[in-house]
Description:
This protein is of the alpha/beta class. The chain has helices spanning 38-44, 92-95, 135-138, 141-154, 169-180, 193-201, 219-225, 240-246, 272-277, 292-301, 319-328; strands spanning 2-8, 11-16, 26-35, 59-67, 79-82, 85-86, 106-107, 119-123, 127-129, 161-165, 185-190, 206-209, 230-235, 250-258, 281-284, 310-315, 334-338. The chain folds into two domains: 2-140 and 307-338, Quinone Oxidoreductase, Chain A, domain 1 (Alpha-Beta Complex), CATH 3.90.180; 147-284, 3-Layer(aba) Sandwich (Rossmann fold), CATH 3.40.50. The strands form four sheets. Strands 3, 4, 5, 8, 9, 16 and 17 form a seven-stranded mixed β-sheet that branches. A six-stranded parallel β-sheet has the order 12-11-10-13-14-15, with helices on both faces. β10, α5 (169-180) and β11 form a beta-alpha-beta unit. α4 (141-154) crosses α5 (169-180) and α4 packs across α10.
Amino acid sequence: xxxxxxxxxxxxxxxxxxxxxxxxxxxxxxxxxxxxxxxxxxxxxxxxxxxxxxxxxxxxxxxxxxxxxxxxxxxxxxxxxxxxxxxxxxxxxxxxxxxxxxxxxxxxxxxxxxxxxxxxxxxxxxxxxxxxxxxxxxxxxxxxxxxxxxxxxxxxxxxxxxxxxxxxxxxxxxxxxxxxxxxxxxxxxxxxxxxxxxxxxxxxxxxxxxxxxxxxxxxxxxxxxxxxxxxxxxxxxxxxxxxxxxxxxxxxxxxxxxxxxxxxxxxxxxxxxxxxxxxxxxxxxxxxxxxxxxxxxxxxxxxxxxxxxxxxxxxxxxxxxxxxxxxxxxxxxxxxxxx
Length: 339
Ligand SMILES: [Zn+2]
Ligand SMILES: [Zn+2]
Protein backbone atom coordinates (compact mmCIF):
# COMPACT_ATOMS: atom_id res chain seq x y z
CA UNK A 1 0.00 0.00 0.00
CA UNK A 2 1.03 3.64 -0.27
CA UNK A 3 1.63 5.91 2.70
CA UNK A 4 3.09 9.31 3.49
CA UNK A 5 6.28 8.58 5.43
CA UNK A 6 8.40 11.14 7.26
CA UNK A 7 11.97 10.04 7.91
CA UNK A 8 12.69 13.28 9.75
CA UNK A 9 10.95 16.64 10.23
CA UNK A 10 10.22 18.22 6.84
CA UNK A 11 11.45 15.13 4.95
CA UNK A 12 8.56 13.06 3.62
CA UNK A 13 7.77 10.94 0.62
CA UNK A 14 4.71 9.04 -0.55
CA UNK A 15 5.87 5.46 -1.00
CA UNK A 16 5.04 1.77 -0.92
CA UNK A 17 5.07 0.22 2.54
CA UNK A 18 3.93 -3.21 3.79
CA UNK A 19 0.17 -3.56 4.39
CA UNK A 20 -0.23 -3.57 8.21
CA UNK A 21 -1.92 -6.62 9.76
CA UNK A 22 -4.37 -6.04 12.62
CA UNK A 23 -3.38 -7.71 15.88
CA UNK A 24 -5.80 -9.11 18.49
CA UNK A 25 -8.52 -6.55 19.20
CA UNK A 26 -7.54 -4.40 16.25
CA UNK A 27 -8.98 -3.75 12.81
CA UNK A 28 -7.47 -2.51 9.59
CA UNK A 29 -9.30 0.37 7.93
CA UNK A 30 -9.15 1.25 4.26
CA UNK A 31 -8.87 5.03 4.61
CA UNK A 32 -11.56 6.95 2.75
CA UNK A 33 -10.61 10.42 3.92
CA UNK A 34 -8.08 11.85 6.34
CA UNK A 35 -8.35 15.46 7.40
CA UNK A 36 -5.39 17.75 7.69
CA UNK A 37 -5.18 20.25 10.52
CA UNK A 38 -2.78 22.81 11.93
CA UNK A 39 -1.18 20.11 14.06
CA UNK A 40 0.02 18.41 10.87
CA UNK A 41 1.87 21.59 9.94
CA UNK A 42 3.53 21.56 13.37
CA UNK A 43 4.34 17.86 12.91
CA UNK A 44 5.87 18.60 9.51
CA UNK A 45 8.18 21.02 11.30
CA UNK A 46 9.09 18.40 13.92
CA UNK A 47 6.87 19.84 16.66
CA UNK A 48 4.44 18.15 19.04
CA UNK A 49 5.70 14.82 20.30
CA UNK A 50 6.19 13.31 16.84
CA UNK A 51 8.29 10.18 16.50
CA UNK A 52 9.99 9.18 13.24
CA UNK A 53 9.61 7.46 10.85
CA UNK A 54 6.03 8.69 10.96
CA UNK A 55 2.90 8.44 8.86
CA UNK A 56 0.78 11.41 10.00
CA UNK A 57 -3.00 11.81 9.73
CA UNK A 58 -5.03 11.77 12.95
CA UNK A 59 -8.50 12.60 11.55
CA UNK A 60 -9.43 9.26 10.06
CA UNK A 61 -12.52 8.07 8.18
CA UNK A 62 -12.46 4.60 6.65
CA UNK A 63 -14.07 1.25 6.04
CA UNK A 64 -13.24 -1.85 8.04
CA UNK A 65 -11.04 -3.91 5.77
CA UNK A 66 -9.74 -6.72 8.02
CA UNK A 67 -10.52 -7.94 11.53
CA UNK A 68 -7.94 -8.98 14.10
CA UNK A 69 -8.47 -11.93 16.45
CA UNK A 70 -11.38 -11.56 18.83
CA UNK A 71 -13.06 -8.61 17.12
CA UNK A 72 -16.81 -9.21 17.01
CA UNK A 73 -18.15 -5.65 17.28
CA UNK A 74 -17.36 -4.67 13.70
CA UNK A 75 -17.90 -6.20 10.28
CA UNK A 76 -15.87 -5.92 7.13
CA UNK A 77 -17.00 -3.02 4.95
CA UNK A 78 -18.44 -1.04 7.85
CA UNK A 79 -17.86 2.74 7.54
CA UNK A 80 -16.35 4.23 10.71
CA UNK A 81 -14.41 7.13 12.14
CA UNK A 82 -11.45 6.34 14.35
CA UNK A 83 -10.54 7.89 17.69
CA UNK A 84 -6.78 8.22 17.22
CA UNK A 85 -5.88 8.20 20.92
CA UNK A 86 -4.49 5.08 22.56
CA UNK A 87 -4.22 5.17 26.35
CA UNK A 88 -2.14 2.77 28.40
CA UNK A 89 -4.62 2.46 31.27
CA UNK A 90 -1.98 1.65 33.88
CA UNK A 91 0.17 4.78 34.38
CA UNK A 92 -0.52 7.13 37.31
CA UNK A 93 -2.65 9.66 35.34
CA UNK A 94 -4.68 6.85 33.70
CA UNK A 95 -5.23 5.26 37.13
CA UNK A 96 -6.48 8.51 38.61
CA UNK A 97 -8.95 9.05 35.75
CA UNK A 98 -6.98 11.66 33.82
CA UNK A 99 -6.12 9.65 30.70
CA UNK A 100 -5.37 12.78 28.65
CA UNK A 101 -2.15 13.05 30.65
CA UNK A 102 -1.31 9.37 30.05
CA UNK A 103 2.44 8.97 30.48
CA UNK A 104 2.42 6.67 27.46
CA UNK A 105 0.05 8.77 25.33
CA UNK A 106 0.05 7.24 21.91
CA UNK A 107 -1.72 9.00 19.11
CA UNK A 108 -2.17 7.64 15.59
CA UNK A 109 -0.74 10.19 13.21
CA UNK A 110 1.40 11.87 15.87
CA UNK A 111 3.68 9.22 17.34
CA UNK A 112 2.12 6.16 15.71
CA UNK A 113 1.12 5.33 12.12
CA UNK A 114 -1.83 7.47 11.01
CA UNK A 115 -4.31 7.94 8.21
CA UNK A 116 -2.37 9.56 5.38
CA UNK A 117 -2.09 6.09 3.88
CA UNK A 118 -4.22 3.56 2.00
CA UNK A 119 -4.74 1.65 5.26
CA UNK A 120 -4.34 2.15 8.99
CA UNK A 121 -4.64 -0.21 11.95
CA UNK A 122 -6.88 0.92 14.82
CA UNK A 123 -8.16 -0.65 18.04
CA UNK A 124 -11.70 -1.95 17.44
CA UNK A 125 -13.14 -0.11 20.44
CA UNK A 126 -11.83 3.17 19.00
CA UNK A 127 -14.01 2.83 15.89
CA UNK A 128 -17.37 4.58 15.77
CA UNK A 129 -20.06 3.88 13.16
CA UNK A 130 -20.34 6.80 10.75
CA UNK A 131 -22.10 5.37 7.69
CA UNK A 132 -24.89 7.91 8.00
CA UNK A 133 -22.54 10.88 7.69
CA UNK A 134 -21.05 12.21 4.46
CA UNK A 135 -17.26 12.14 4.35
CA UNK A 136 -16.88 15.90 4.80
CA UNK A 137 -18.88 15.68 8.03
CA UNK A 138 -17.36 12.43 9.32
CA UNK A 139 -13.86 13.84 8.90
CA UNK A 140 -14.77 16.55 11.44
CA UNK A 141 -15.41 13.94 14.16
CA UNK A 142 -11.91 14.23 15.65
CA UNK A 143 -11.65 18.04 15.65
CA UNK A 144 -15.19 18.26 17.03
CA UNK A 145 -14.32 15.73 19.75
CA UNK A 146 -11.41 18.01 20.73
CA UNK A 147 -13.81 20.97 20.91
CA UNK A 148 -16.21 18.94 23.08
CA UNK A 149 -13.34 18.32 25.49
CA UNK A 150 -12.50 22.02 25.31
CA UNK A 151 -16.04 22.90 26.39
CA UNK A 152 -15.73 20.43 29.28
CA UNK A 153 -12.55 22.19 30.41
CA UNK A 154 -13.90 25.70 29.91
CA UNK A 155 -17.05 25.08 31.97
CA UNK A 156 -18.81 28.05 30.35
CA UNK A 157 -21.26 30.09 32.43
CA UNK A 158 -24.60 30.65 30.69
CA UNK A 159 -24.96 34.18 29.38
CA UNK A 160 -21.23 34.69 28.87
CA UNK A 161 -19.89 37.14 26.30
CA UNK A 162 -17.21 35.25 24.38
CA UNK A 163 -14.54 36.37 21.92
CA UNK A 164 -12.83 33.75 19.76
CA UNK A 165 -9.65 34.53 17.84
CA UNK A 166 -9.31 32.29 14.81
CA UNK A 167 -11.77 30.99 12.21
CA UNK A 168 -10.06 27.83 11.09
CA UNK A 169 -12.13 24.62 11.21
CA UNK A 170 -11.53 24.38 14.95
CA UNK A 171 -12.43 28.01 15.66
CA UNK A 172 -15.58 27.63 13.58
CA UNK A 173 -16.71 24.52 15.45
CA UNK A 174 -15.74 26.05 18.78
CA UNK A 175 -17.78 29.19 18.07
CA UNK A 176 -20.84 27.04 17.34
CA UNK A 177 -20.49 24.94 20.48
CA UNK A 178 -19.94 28.04 22.62
CA UNK A 179 -23.21 29.46 21.28
CA UNK A 180 -25.04 26.18 21.94
CA UNK A 181 -23.27 25.89 25.29
CA UNK A 182 -24.96 29.00 26.65
CA UNK A 183 -22.94 32.03 25.49
CA UNK A 184 -25.11 35.14 25.14
CA UNK A 185 -22.89 36.50 22.38
CA UNK A 186 -20.07 34.99 20.37
CA UNK A 187 -17.66 37.21 18.47
CA UNK A 188 -15.15 35.68 16.05
CA UNK A 189 -12.08 37.68 15.06
CA UNK A 190 -9.94 36.43 12.18
CA UNK A 191 -8.07 37.75 9.15
CA UNK A 192 -9.92 35.95 6.33
CA UNK A 193 -13.24 37.40 5.14
CA UNK A 194 -14.37 34.12 3.64
CA UNK A 195 -13.96 32.28 6.93
CA UNK A 196 -15.81 35.05 8.76
CA UNK A 197 -18.65 34.64 6.23
CA UNK A 198 -18.76 30.95 7.17
CA UNK A 199 -18.78 31.87 10.87
CA UNK A 200 -21.79 34.13 10.32
CA UNK A 201 -23.56 31.46 8.28
CA UNK A 202 -23.09 29.11 11.27
CA UNK A 203 -24.71 31.61 13.60
CA UNK A 204 -21.81 33.64 15.01
CA UNK A 205 -23.25 36.91 16.30
CA UNK A 206 -20.41 39.29 15.47
CA UNK A 207 -17.35 38.96 13.24
CA UNK A 208 -14.33 41.24 13.20
CA UNK A 209 -11.72 41.15 10.46
CA UNK A 210 -8.24 41.53 11.87
CA UNK A 211 -4.85 42.19 10.32
CA UNK A 212 -2.87 38.94 10.27
CA UNK A 213 0.45 40.71 10.81
CA UNK A 214 -0.86 43.10 13.47
CA UNK A 215 -3.97 41.82 15.31
CA UNK A 216 -3.54 44.60 17.91
CA UNK A 217 -4.86 47.07 15.35
CA UNK A 218 -8.32 45.58 15.96
CA UNK A 219 -8.17 46.38 19.69
CA UNK A 220 -10.23 49.61 19.49
CA UNK A 221 -13.07 47.79 17.67
CA UNK A 222 -12.97 44.80 20.01
CA UNK A 223 -12.87 47.02 23.11
CA UNK A 224 -15.69 49.24 21.87
CA UNK A 225 -17.90 46.15 21.54
CA UNK A 226 -17.20 45.09 25.14
CA UNK A 227 -15.96 48.08 27.16
CA UNK A 228 -15.63 46.04 30.39
CA UNK A 229 -14.02 43.14 28.54
CA UNK A 230 -15.26 39.70 27.50
CA UNK A 231 -16.16 37.00 30.02
CA UNK A 232 -14.10 34.55 27.99
CA UNK A 233 -11.43 35.21 25.36
CA UNK A 234 -10.36 32.16 23.35
CA UNK A 235 -7.18 31.87 21.35
CA UNK A 236 -7.69 29.35 18.55
CA UNK A 237 -4.68 30.54 16.54
CA UNK A 238 -1.55 29.73 18.55
CA UNK A 239 -0.02 32.97 17.23
CA UNK A 240 2.07 35.06 19.65
CA UNK A 241 0.68 38.33 18.30
CA UNK A 242 -2.84 37.16 19.20
CA UNK A 243 -2.01 35.51 22.54
CA UNK A 244 -0.32 38.72 23.67
CA UNK A 245 -3.53 40.77 23.39
CA UNK A 246 -5.96 38.20 24.84
CA UNK A 247 -5.59 38.83 28.58
CA UNK A 248 -6.13 42.55 28.12
CA UNK A 249 -9.53 41.83 26.54
CA UNK A 250 -10.77 39.60 29.40
CA UNK A 251 -13.06 41.31 31.90
CA UNK A 252 -12.21 41.31 35.62
CA UNK A 253 -12.78 37.80 36.94
CA UNK A 254 -12.93 36.38 33.41
CA UNK A 255 -11.12 33.58 31.63
CA UNK A 256 -8.47 33.38 28.94
CA UNK A 257 -8.82 30.03 27.20
CA UNK A 258 -5.73 28.73 25.39
CA UNK A 259 -7.08 26.42 22.69
CA UNK A 260 -4.79 26.99 19.70
CA UNK A 261 -1.57 25.03 19.44
CA UNK A 262 1.41 27.36 19.63
CA UNK A 263 5.00 26.58 18.72
CA UNK A 264 6.61 24.78 21.65
CA UNK A 265 9.35 27.42 21.85
CA UNK A 266 6.95 30.36 21.97
CA UNK A 267 6.68 32.45 25.12
CA UNK A 268 4.79 35.67 25.78
CA UNK A 269 5.03 38.16 28.67
CA UNK A 270 2.61 37.76 31.56
CA UNK A 271 1.82 40.42 34.16
CA UNK A 272 1.22 38.53 37.40
CA UNK A 273 -0.16 41.64 39.08
CA UNK A 274 -2.90 41.84 36.45
CA UNK A 275 -3.85 38.19 36.94
CA UNK A 276 -3.81 38.74 40.72
CA UNK A 277 -5.63 42.06 40.88
CA UNK A 278 -8.25 41.20 38.27
CA UNK A 279 -8.62 37.56 39.39
CA UNK A 280 -8.12 36.23 35.87
CA UNK A 281 -8.27 32.54 35.04
CA UNK A 282 -6.09 30.97 32.37
CA UNK A 283 -7.18 27.56 31.11
CA UNK A 284 -5.74 25.28 28.44
CA UNK A 285 -7.25 22.47 26.43
CA UNK A 286 -5.31 19.80 24.60
CA UNK A 287 -6.74 17.08 22.31
CA UNK A 288 -9.38 14.77 23.80
CA UNK A 289 -10.17 11.33 25.10
CA UNK A 290 -13.61 9.69 25.26
CA UNK A 291 -15.38 12.53 23.39
CA UNK A 292 -16.15 10.88 20.05
CA UNK A 293 -19.65 9.77 20.96
CA UNK A 294 -20.71 13.30 21.86
CA UNK A 295 -18.92 14.72 18.84
CA UNK A 296 -20.81 12.38 16.52
CA UNK A 297 -24.10 13.19 18.25
CA UNK A 298 -23.52 16.90 17.56
CA UNK A 299 -22.57 16.26 13.94
CA UNK A 300 -25.54 13.93 13.45
CA UNK A 301 -28.08 16.37 14.82
CA UNK A 302 -26.65 19.15 12.69
CA UNK A 303 -26.16 21.21 15.86
CA UNK A 304 -22.55 21.54 14.75
CA UNK A 305 -22.52 22.44 11.09
CA UNK A 306 -19.67 21.48 8.81
CA UNK A 307 -21.00 22.36 5.35
CA UNK A 308 -18.36 24.28 3.46
CA UNK A 309 -15.50 23.37 5.81
CA UNK A 310 -13.61 20.94 3.57
CA UNK A 311 -12.66 23.23 0.72
CA UNK A 312 -9.73 21.26 -0.71
CA UNK A 313 -9.34 17.53 -1.42
CA UNK A 314 -6.07 15.94 -2.50
CA UNK A 315 -4.98 12.51 -3.63
CA UNK A 316 -2.48 10.74 -1.36
CA UNK A 317 0.31 11.46 -3.83
CA UNK A 318 -0.43 15.17 -3.52
CA UNK A 319 0.08 15.22 0.25
CA UNK A 320 2.64 18.00 -0.15
CA UNK A 321 0.03 20.18 -1.86
CA UNK A 322 -2.44 19.54 0.99
CA UNK A 323 0.21 20.64 3.46
CA UNK A 324 0.96 23.75 1.43
CA UNK A 325 -2.75 24.63 1.13
CA UNK A 326 -3.18 24.29 4.90
CA UNK A 327 -0.09 26.38 5.52
CA UNK A 328 -0.57 29.25 3.12
CA UNK A 329 -3.65 29.12 0.87
CA UNK A 330 -6.09 31.60 2.37
CA UNK A 331 -8.96 30.13 0.33
CA UNK A 332 -8.41 26.83 2.16
CA UNK A 333 -10.58 26.32 5.24
CA UNK A 334 -9.79 22.64 5.58
CA UNK A 335 -7.83 20.30 3.34
CA UNK A 336 -8.43 16.56 3.27
CA UNK A 337 -6.52 13.67 1.74
CA UNK A 338 -8.52 11.07 -0.15
CA UNK A 339 -6.39 7.93 -0.69
ZN1 LIG B 1 -6.20 17.85 14.38
ZN1 LIG C 1 -1.55 5.89 30.76
